[in-house]
Specification:
By secondary structure, the protein is an all-alpha fold. It contains 13 helices and no strands. It is globular and about 45 Å long. The two termini are 26 Å apart.
C-alpha cells in the first residue's frame, strides 16, 4: 500500500466521523447554541491533544503559527456559515451545497496555481457531483439566503484544504503541530464569538455530554490532526473528493440511529459516489488492459 493510498484510507475514516457528526450535532443543538457548541468541541479537542502531544508542542515555528492562524480563521468561517445558513434553507439543499468543496478546490487550484486536474480525476469529479446531487437534492431546489450562506461553507473549506496543502509542504511547518494549533485558534475565535453573540453554556444531560465529547475528541481532534498529517501525501483536490463521502456516511448513521431511509434516487447517488472513489484510487484503464491482455 502506497503512502497516498494509506492517507486516503485514513481520510475516508475521518470522513465517516464527520458523517456521524450530523446526528450528534443534532442532539447537541437541543441544548447548546451553534457557536457555543463549536467553541466547546474545538477547545476540548485542543486541550486533549495539547496534553497528549505536550513535548511536540514545546517548540513551534513562526511558520506553523502563521498557517495555524490562517487555517483556524478559515475553519471559523466554515462553521459559522454552516451554523447560520442551515436554519435558512432545507437540509437537502445544505447537504449538497456544503459538500461543494469538491468543486471549489480544483477551481481555486486552477485560478490560483494554474493547476489543471487530470482526466481521470475530472471524470471522478463529475460522477461524484452527480451522485451527491441525486443523494441530497430535493425536487424543488430554489436558491435562498441560506443557500448563499452555505455556499460560503463550501468555499471557505476549499480555502482550508488549499492552505493545509501549502502548509504541510513547507519544511518549516510540523504537520502534527499544525493540526493541534489550528484547533486552538478556531476554538478561541469561536469562544469570543459566542461570548459576543450567544449565551454560553455547557451540556445539561448525559446524552448530550457524550455526543459533545465524541464530537470534540473524534470528529474534531483526531479528524483534523489526521487531515493535517496525511494531506502531505496526497493533494487538496483528492481530499476534497474524498470528503464528499460525508453525506453518504451521514445517511448510513441516520438509517441505523434515526431510522431515515433513502429513496431509490438516493441509493443510485450513493453508488455513483462510491464508483467515483474507486475510479480515483484505481487506474481502471490499466487494469482492464491487463485483464484483456492475452497470456
Amino acid at each position: 500500500m502506497t503512502k497516498q493510498h494509506k492517507a486516503d484510507l485514513l481520510l475516508v475514516m475521518i470522513t465517516a466521523f464527520w458523517g456521524a457528526s450530523y446526528f450528534l450535532t443534532d442532539l447537541c443543538l437541543a441544548e447548546l447554541p451553534p457557536l457555543c457548541l463549536n467553541a466547546f468541541r474545538f477547545l476540548v479537542a485542543f486541550a486533549v491533544l495539547a496534553v497528549i502531544y505536550f513535548r511536540r508542542l514545546r517548540h513551534i515555528s513562526r511558520r506553523t503559527w502563521l498557517y495555524s492562524f490562517l487555517i483556524g480563521c478559515s475553519l471559523t468561517l466554515v462553521y459559522t456559515c454552516y451554523g447560520f445558513g442551515l436554519p435558512l434553507t432545507s437540509i437537502s439543499n445544505a447537504g449538497f451545497i456544503c459538500a461543494l468543496p469538491v468543486i471549489f478546490t480544483p477551481l481555486l487550484e486552477l485560478a490560483v496555481f494554474r493547476k489543471k486536474p487530470n482526466r481521470r480525476f475530472a471524470v471522478a469529479l463529475v460522477l461524484c457531483t452527480v451522485g451527491l446531487g441525486l443523494m441530497t437534492l430535493s425536487d424543488t431546489f430554489r436558491p435562498a439566503v441560506g443557500d448563499i450562506i452555505c455556499m460560503g461553507t463550501a468555499f471557505f473549506y476549499a480555502v482550508d484544504l488549499l492552505l493545509t496543502d501549502r502548509a504541510v509542504r513547507d519544511n518549516e511547518v510540523d504537520p502534527l503541530q499544525l493540526g493541534v494549533c489550528q484547533l486552538g485558534v478556531t476554538g478561541g475565535i469561536m469562544l469570543l464569538l459566542t461570548l459576543l453573540l450567544e449565551q454560553p453554556q455547557l451540556p445539561q444531560s448525559p446524552q448530550v455530554w457524550g455526543a459533545a465529547l465524541f464530537l470534540a475528541v473524534f470528529c474534531t481532534g483526531i479528524a483534523f490532526v489526521i487531515q493535517a498529517v496525511q494531506q502531505q501525501y496526497t493533494t487538496a483536490s483528492h481530499v476534497g473528493l474524498i470528503f464528499t463521502l460525508e453525506p453518504l456516511f451521514s445517511a448510513i448513521v441516520a438509517y441505523f440511529f434515526a431510522h431515515e431511509v433513502l429513496g431509490v434516487r438516493g441509493y443510485i447517488g450513493a453508488a455513483l459516489m462510491m464508483l467515483s472513489l474507486v475510479l480515483m484510487e484505481l487506474d481502471v484503464g490499466t487494469i482492464i488492459k491487463k485483464l484483456c491482455k492475452k497470456p
